[in-house]
Amino acid sequence: MISLLLACSARIALVDPPDSRSSRLPAPDGDLAVRPARRPMLLRGGGADGWEQIGARPVSIDEERVFAGRAFPMTLSPLLSGRTTLTEWAAEHRETLLQLVRENGAVLLRGFGGMETPQGFSDFVMGLRLEEFGMGCSAAPRTEVAPGVFTANEAPPQEKIPFHHEMAQCEDKPAFLFFYCEFPAQTGGATPIIPSNAVATHLREACGHAFSAVRPATSRPPLAVCRPGPSGRG
């Protein structure tokens, strides 16, 4: 099954998969894993039948959770498969799709056609008419496989990477992130995501004094971003 994840980059942290081809989205553990999601019933300009107007519907996945009353990630599937490609559908309903990404933090698209190749993914992203983000500041080796489409991670499959903000080292951050799964991992592999604001709230409530002590003041200059190596040193 072809899967695609759209995320608002200012609101999520993610873990690059040991096998970057995986589409699995495990739920966060512990106190941050909260009640099952409630299904949203309203779209802009419509009532409960608003989903029919855009030809898609929200579906539940086991890993889905609710943060601040909204599904994370929201998962959408077409009402009628085979009627249109994802590129055509997204171009027609661009504003609604981006609205859902902003409101929920992440939207997972499953079951749409036309996403069998990296070129199809590229066509979909280009059809959303977003400002292109340059990859010159990327700290990881990536290979361009289609216009504007790069491999997510080329680290050895057994290497685990902790939660991080994508492109955090860049002076200008991307407004949206797109992840496309062409070949799901046969074993293992995962791309966990979690809302950063929920993590910050949890840390503030659970370890208030310690959180305040390490949280940089707004006047402090930006800190260098480093990634721990196998030895644990940055």
UniProtKB/TrEMBL annotation:
Domain TauD/TfdA-like, residue spans: 86-207
InterPro entries from the UniProt entry: AlphaKG_dependent_hydroxylases, TauD-like_sf, TauD/TfdA-like
SUPFAM superfamilies, per database record: Clavaminate synthase-like (SSF51197)
Domain of life: Eukaryota
Keywords: Oxidoreductase
GO molecular function: oxidoreductase activity
Keyword Oxidoreductase: yes
PANTHER family: GAMMA-BUTYROBETAINE HYDROXYLASE-RELATED, TAUD_TFDA-LIKE DOMAIN-CONTAINING PROTEIN
Protein name: TauD/TfdA-like domain-containing protein
Record organism: Emiliania huxleyi (Coccolithophore)
